[in-house]
Specification:
A hairpin with a 4-residue loop joins β9 and β10. Helices cover 24% and strands 37% of the residues. It folds into three domains: 48 residues, no CATH class; 234 residues, no CATH class; 29 residues. The radius of gyration is 29 Å and the shape is elongated. It has six helices and 15 strands.
Length: 361
């Protein structure tokens, strides 16, 4: 016995059936009527949808060349477990992540050689100046924080990043409506038309960055983006002279999830912008299939600044290429209460004035 095809209403999701009186398919729940060819086309589209295919070839990075590792030393933090590399002349006395002492453990080993590096464009003095500028305009920042606060450590660190390149075939499906209203002497009318909207195309993604260090907060690293990857050069150990290099502890395979998440979000936002001319438009389904996926291992320049105030440690990060500074600051609780009280007073005044006007009407 042949299986019975059941159609769902694209508008409300209810089961629809053929109405012999109007010779159309009709939903008994929302009374929407459909031409047979319209439903057949919609059904063909649903059947042709594909699952996501976001797989990668994760062969980024190379093996160290003979003699390159001899000029590098490895340090490990006994507190947070952070492991960093530097040239043989760098004297690291504290961890750039938590501020605790680090211990030199020997030569670098067991990690891949970066494919490329973005050299530092800004020096330590620029990082200190950027931090002072970061304080400006912060109304809730305690005033004594600027005077009593001092910078404990300023370290230039090359942070490991995985860069994902791919071509993405994207298909998106939307539920959309167009609403028209009008009135006469007796009634107000509202007409809602429902549409199934499809979008498809190809987007090329280049150098989607995912930091490969669990010690560097993801939101902190994403906040100092973007880095201009076009200025990256082939890696040489000479670029590490005078700086530290964080060793990745999340490999390329472990970074795929975040790369796919960033690619999906960017693709959805790009396609959402193309659905215009409707009263409402809601993304209903979509698929992304990647082709020519490639991964590179890179080092990006970051200045890390640590400062202590009232026993609390504050970490700031500056893009060593662009100078963009981010980091959390303490809040003056007294100033915050005054600000909140003032805001509450303003809202109360506005509501009182609005209610008085309505009462007068």
């Amino acid at each position: 016995m042949a299986a019975i095809q059941e159609y769902k209403c694209p508008c409300c999701g209810g089961a629809i059936a053929f109405d012999s009186a109007i010779q159309k398919m009709k939903c008994p729940f929302c009374d929407t009527e459909f031409e047979m060819e319209t439903l057949a086309s919609y059904d063909r589209e649903l059947r042709s949808e594909q699952e996501d295919d976001m797989r990668w070839e994760t062969a980024g990075g190379e093996e160290w060349q003979d003699g390159e590792e001899d000029a590098l030393s490895a340090y490990v933090c006994q507190s947070c477990g952070g492991e960093i590399a530097c040239d043989e002349h760098t004297a690291a006395v504290s961890c750039p992540f938590c501020g605790n002492p680090v211990v030199m453990t020997g030569q670098v080993s067991g990690t891949l050689r970066p494919d490329c590096v973005i050299p530092f464009q800004l020096d330590k003095n620029a990082a200190k100046a950027a931090l002072k500028k970061h304080y400006e305009g912060k109304r809730l920042l305690p005033k004594v924080f600027k005077s009593q606060n001092h910078i404990d450590e300023v370290k230039g660190v090359y942070v490991p990043f995985w860069l994902f390149d791919a071509d993405a075939d994207v298909n998106m499906r939307y539920k959309a409506t167009k609403v028209r209203t009008w009135s006469d002497d007796k009634f107000e009318y509202k007409e809602t038309r429902h549409y199934a909207v499809s979008r498809g195309g190809n987007i090329a993604f280049e150098a989607v960055p995912v930091d490969g260090s669990t010690k560097m907060p993801d939101d902190l690293m994403e906040s100092i983006e973007p880095f201009d990857v076009s200025k990256a050069v082939d890696f040489q150990t000479a670029y590490l002279a005078g700086y530290l290099a964080d060793k990745y502890d999340v490999d390329a395979d472990g970074s795929i999830g975040r790369a796919n998440e960033r690619i999906r979000k960017s693709a959805e936002e790009a396609f959402d912008k193309t659905v215009t001319g409707y009263t409402t438009a809601v993304r209903e389904a979509g698929s992304i299939r990647l082709q020519n996926g490639r991964v590179k291992y890179a080092l990006f320049p970051v200045w890390l600044l640590q400062t202590t105030w009232k026993g609390e440690n504050y970490l700031f990060a500056m893009n060593g290429q662009s100078g963009k500074m981010v980091g959390n600051l303490p809040t003056d609780k007294g100033a915050y209460r005054k600000w909140l009280f003032g805001l509450t007073g303003i809202i109360g005044t506005v509501l009182f004035a609005a209610s008085y006007i309505i009462w007068m009407l």
